[in-house]
User: Which sequence fits this backbone?
């Protein structure tokens, strides 16, 4: 009985340690949570739609500005402002407030963490031994299981994610998403700054009963939201092109990244890096 009690305590301690490690990892890897309140990014998204014969049928331009409203130990709150240009007219929607946990959960959902055996993945011919965890998000009408492969002392730390979303009881698969880092230690120029920044390349494949969307994106960790350039295409269930989308960075402003141990930043007030202001100063 004593042995059983000790074994239970050890198991509970390991589970708590795994959950704590996962919380810190997800918070530090979140593309918005590393930045303080007021950090923002503006992007332009160009979307082309195609008919059943593969001919262009529609096009739109969307300006999207995302601003960090709040960062806490558990979640980040963002304000999203969207303006769509369609047929030569611009339509601005009401700003949306989005609150999400660092595993992607929404308010009212719960997250459980389970450590799995380490796995080895390959990036650019390099075999990388990764710690592995399974995250399960439950609550509401869906359930999502995600397996992440990560190395805590690398940038980015999370190198692969594989997620499966089902209905609440797990009997029907609704969506599968695989996100893989394909190249690291690359460089990209950001806006008109001559000195390039360190970047990494990510491929995402999203599958559901309506088709498959493939996305390639460049990530720069100094930029709120990280993504500075992106292209994607969607094929329907019969392999026909449905939509192509490109995303480009227009501008951004950020505070210095928060220290990983301090969700509430207690040091000196960080300074904003506003690229638009810097461009004006150089003129």
Assistant:
């Amino acid at each position: 009985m004593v042995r059983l009690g000790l074994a239970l305590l050890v198991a509970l301690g390991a589970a708590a340690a795994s959950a704590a490690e996962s919380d810190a990892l997800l918070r530090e890897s979140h593309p918005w949570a590393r930045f303080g309140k007021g950090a923002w990014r503006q992007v332009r998204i160009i979307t082309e739609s195609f008919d059943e014969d593969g001919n262009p049928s529609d096009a739109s331009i969307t300006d999207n500005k995302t601003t960090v409203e709040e960062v806490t130990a558990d979640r980040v709150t963002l304000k999203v402002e969207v303006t769509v240009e369609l047929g030569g007219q611009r339509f601005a929607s009401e700003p949306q407030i989005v609150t999400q946990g660092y595993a992607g959960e929404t308010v009212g959902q719960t997250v459980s963490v389970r450590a799995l055996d380490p796995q080895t993945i390959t990036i650019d011919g390099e075999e990388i031994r990764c710690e592995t965890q399974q995250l399960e998000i439950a609550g509401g009408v869906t359930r999502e299981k995600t397996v992440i492969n990560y190395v805590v002392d690398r940038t980015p730390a999370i190198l692969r994610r594989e997620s499966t979303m089902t209905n609440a009881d797990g009997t029907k698969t609704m969506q599968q998403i695989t996100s893989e880092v394909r190249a690291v230690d690359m460089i990209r120029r950001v806006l008109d700054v001559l000195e390039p920044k360190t970047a990494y390349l990510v491929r995402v494949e999203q599958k559901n009963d309506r088709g498959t969307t493939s996305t390639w994106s460049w990530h720069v960790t100094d930029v709120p939201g990280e993504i500075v350039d992106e292209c994607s295409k969607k094929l329907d269930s019969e392999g026909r092109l449905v939509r192509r989308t490109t995303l480009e960075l227009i501008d951004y402003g950020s505070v210095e990244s928060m220290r990983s141990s301090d969700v509430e930043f207690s040091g000196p007030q960080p300074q904003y890096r506003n690229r638009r202001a810097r461009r004006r100063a150089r003129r």
